[in-house]
Every structure is written in C-alpha cells, then in structure tokens.
Amino acid sequence: MEFKDYYQVLGVAKAATADEVKKAYRKLARQFHPDVSKEPDAERRMQEINEAKAVLSDPEKRLAYDQLAEQHHAGQDFQPSPEWDAGFEYRGRGFEEADLGEFSDFFANLFGQSGRGGRGGRDYQMRGEDRHAKVVIDLEDAYHGAVRAMTLQVPQVDAQGRVASRAHTLNVRIPKGVKAGQHIRLSGQGSPGVGGGPAGDLFLEIHFTPDPRYQIEGRDIHQKVPVTPWEAALGASIETSTPSGVVKVKVPAGSQSGRRLRLKGRGIPGAEPGDLYITLEVVLPPANTDKARELYETMARELAFDPRQRTGG
Amino acid sequence: MTQQNIASGELVDEATLTLDELARACSVETNWVIERIESGLLADGSPYVASWRFTSHDLTRARRMYRLERDFEAAPELAALATDLIEENQRLKSRLRAAELRDT
C-alpha cells in the first residue's frame, strides 16, 4: 500500500487553515466533479480529492494523519500498525459507511472500522453497502442479450483487519432490451456485510460502445444508409445491415438524400420496442471513366433539371 | 479469480425500486429521499409513500443530486437545478447527434 500525501492532493501547505483546505477543495471539485468535468480521469481524481478533504477537514483525523506523515512521504510503501492511532479519539465511527467503497485502501486502513479491529470490538450486524459500476456493451447486445465478463475492485478485509482491493471477475447476463442509462441490479454482489449481515447489491449502469454507424435515443436507433441515384429515383428493394442483422428495406421511388424511413419495432426490443430510423444518403458514382462521363453528359443533355431553380440561386 | 457461473440480475424499470432500496443505493437516509420528493426535486412528488416506486432514471438523478450536494455543499434546490441542466444537456446532445446523422 502506498502512502498518500493528502496535502499534495489538495495542493495546500501543511500549515493550511481549515478555510484554505475548504477553498482548495472547492476549486478542485469544480474542476474534477464527474458530473460537470470534462477531464478524462475525473472520477478517480474526485475520489482522491474527497478522500483528502475527509481527512484534512476533520481536526481529529488530520492530527492523527499529520503524525504519520512526519515519517512517510507520498508513494512510499506503508503498513499501519493496528495501534497506529492509539491516543486519538474519534467522534462516532472513523468513517461514513458510504465512504469505504469509494475511498482507497490507504484511507480504509487508517480510518475504516476494520482498520481499527481489536479495539472495542462491537457486536453488531450491518448490511453491506450497495456498489455501483458502469458496464459498456455493444448495441447488438441490447438486441440479443449477452453475457459479459467484467472485473471490479472489491475491498476485502484480511485476518489482520487490513483492507486490500481484490479483482473480482463477474460474468453478467445482459438482458435483451436494455437501454443506455438503465441499471441491472445484482442482488448480494455488493460489499460484504459486517458481523454476518447480508451483502449489499451491485448496480450496473449500462452504456453503449460508441458506434459511428448508429445513434441511439432511448430505444430508437438512427442509421444512415447510402443508396445509388437510381435506387433513390426509381425506387428499389435494398439490403442493409442493422443492429438486428441484415434487413430488406424498400426505398420509395423519388427519394432524395436525407429522406427518413421508419422501420417500426426494429429499434431496441422491449415491451414497447423502439423504431429504427434510416436516413437515405444518395451517393454519386464518380465520373472517372469514359462510360461514366458519357452517362452524366447524357443526363445533362436530356434532363431538364435545375436544382437551384426553386431557391432562386 | 474467475467465477464460472453467470450472474443474472434484474433490470431496474421492469422491477422498480422501493423507497428503502433507492435510499440504500444512494447511501442516504430515507428521509433524504422523502424531503426531496416532497419538495418536488425528485420523482413525480406523489404524496403516498407506500406506492412510491423508483426507476433507473430516479436512481441516476438521486445519486447525482447527492454527489453535488455533498461535494459542493450545495443546497438541495441548487443541486437539483444543476441536475436538471445536466439532464437537459444530455438530452439535447443525444438529439443533436441523431439530427447530425439525419442532416449531413
């Protein structure tokens, strides 16, 4: 376990006042809050910042931490002794229940209940906290359902009462018909309970892998399909690949680029399945052979067509 | 360490969350949820607690509001306002992407 320099995380001096800690925290929260930040590792940074603030804004935790920090520096390997904070009193529990899953092993070992095992061993039961994770799936998975392996870091308490993260691989069944932003709840797959209490639940939030071919709005899917000028002008029955597989689409005669066709019920399945919207995109063949040029010239000669007539251009 | 068996969960929305389940999933007290529903910041503000059921959207919204309140020491109304704007922004972005696909 690495020693964390919380002063460095917040960018404040060791002598910083409570007010300075708060100010530094707010400034960083504005920058890295995952709900508003555009920074790529916002979530991880915010967790670190919250953790540093939890310690430095609490006078008792800060005092205990400062004593440790005198003998350690950031990144140094570090194992606290069970009595590292002997002589310090905390109001209530050392940490909020919600924090353990979110904070680092370093924090959990110093301030977590389990990190202070052996002292005042309380005989109580507590349900493990619920945990949250994001899972990224392909759009096709929402159409057909799938099984996806995912690896989560799970905090585990060893016999000495130390907390260490362990990689936990879980094969999850993705049910057919999931939407972006929807949750799958896995009962009992959250944090383990305390004193024989039941484990919490794991909530997986569904996200789709970005796919340049498709745009997703709820259960509706938007897709562009290229067509030839004659298919658009004369009408045609074409085959195109969609998230649900290859489908036959009837292009109505007289279609223009940008015409939208709705394939009812071909969106993401569900009790009310979404629709698939196909936008036709007329693609011109290049005039790079004598034959092709001749055909274009024939059209130019034979067709009385001026697309700018209506626009007055 | 691979777990061979496959974990099958339930899809939130088809099975909605109770008040207790929502509060637990957000690591808040049930009162936190009730106060925000009664002041119209969360869900649709139905007055009957027993019939309250919550969707995936409510869960995402409640967690976001809670994080904003906690991390910025924001008043609930302000956190809800920021959440409204974030949700609106996401809706518009997704419509814009669909429209771009349509128009280009």
UniProtKB/TrEMBL annotation, chain A:
TM region positions: none
Annotated ranges, domain J: 5-69
Entry keyword annotation includes Chaperone: yes
Superkingdom of this protein's organism: Bacteria
PROSITE patterns: DNAJ_2
Pfam families, A to Z: DnaJ, DnaJ_C
Protein keywords: Chaperone
Protein name as it appears in the record: DnaJ domain-containing protein
UniProtKB/TrEMBL annotation, chain B:
Top-rank taxon, per record: Bacteria
Protein name: Chaperone modulator CbpM
